[in-house]
Design goal:
The chain is of the alpha/beta class. Helices cover 38% and strands 20% of the residues.
Length: 280
């Protein structure tokens, strides 16, 4: 280990947080670039009542970067000095950068959606079906509409879909109207349906998926969800949720270190850690 008195600390916070793979991913990136004497990444279990105290402590300790898992992505905004306009638009902060005591909040979740998609196709003018209307859906909705896609949000509670659609400029439909998804170009699942893999559940009937679709499941695991397996059977292109986590983390890495993230090293560490977690 190359940690010394000058090494800057970055942390992921959540409740729970023990399932986070961010420490393995980021520390592998530091080591790959030879900056593991400058940065180290750890995890902190922080309950909601302790969040204000944690932020004060992070400011006092000079913690360089904070990655926020649920349930802190909304509440932490109250304690920051500045919020990036994108995070304001998304309505959530998943990344905090500490510059000499000035805490600024960002959102990188939307990049975790758009980067993998744009590696396959331009989003401009594409018809996107978004399943879900929660926190991950907000980031996805912002990202695809920002890139020029036509968004339709499908959710069990139509009112939630309508509220999100009004905020980002999309259309809302009940998940019971899912047959209309056949005419879409891209399907993004941000619901929790599909976890754990052993339950073998899917948010969308197989017959609504065609070979013309790109199917992105934000659920991440070492294997494919039923949604992705059935999409492959239908001939669709698929993107697993591991891509979302990796790409949003790579943007956090850049914000924390000022350097471009080493994708191959971080991807290798991520998949190894995921396999270990799911096989123990």
């Amino acid at each position: 280990m190359k940690i010394n008195a000058k090494t800057k600390l970055c942390v992921v916070i959540g409740d729970p947080v023990e399932d986070s793979l961010s420490p393995q991913i980021h520390n592998a990136g530091y080591e790959s670039l030879g900056i593991d004497d400058q940065f180290v990444y750890a995890a902190c279990q922080i309950s909601a009542p302790d969040l204000a105290d944690f932020v004060a402590g992070a400011r006092a300790m000079g913690i360089r970067g904070i990655c926020c898992k649920m349930p802190h992505k909304l509440e932490i905004m109250r304690y920051l000095d500045e919020i990036d306009p994108v995070a304001e638009a998304v309505g959530a902060v998943n990344t905090v950068v500490n510059d000499n005591g000035h805490l600024k909040g960002y959102n990188t979740d939307w990049i975790g959606i758009t980067e993998p998609l744009e590696a396959i196709t331009s989003l401009q003018g594409k018809k996107v079906a978004l399943l879900g209307a929660g926190g991950a859906a907000r980031a996805a909705a912002y990202g695809v509409t920002k890139r020029g896609a036509e968004l339709t949000i499908y959710n069990r509670t139509l009112e939630k879909a309508e509220l999100l659609a009004a905020q980002v400029g999309g259309t809302a439909r009940s998940i019971d109207d899912a047959e209309s998804i056949k005419s879409m170009d891209i399907i993004i699942n941000t619901t929790s349906v599909g976890v754990p893999l052993s339950h073998n559940e899917t948010p969308l009937p197989k017959e609504f998926i065609t070979e013309k679709h790109i199917v992105f499941d934000a659920v991440y695991a070492s294997g494919y969800t039923r949604l992705l397996n059935e999409a492959q059977e239908q001939g669709a292109q698929i993107i697993p949720g591991t891509e979302m986590l990796l790409h949003q983390g790579m943007e956090q890495f850049r914000l924390f270190t000022g350097q471009n993230a080493p994708e191959n090293a971080m991807r290798k560490a991520f998949m190894a850690a995921l396999d270990t977690r799911e096989n123990t």
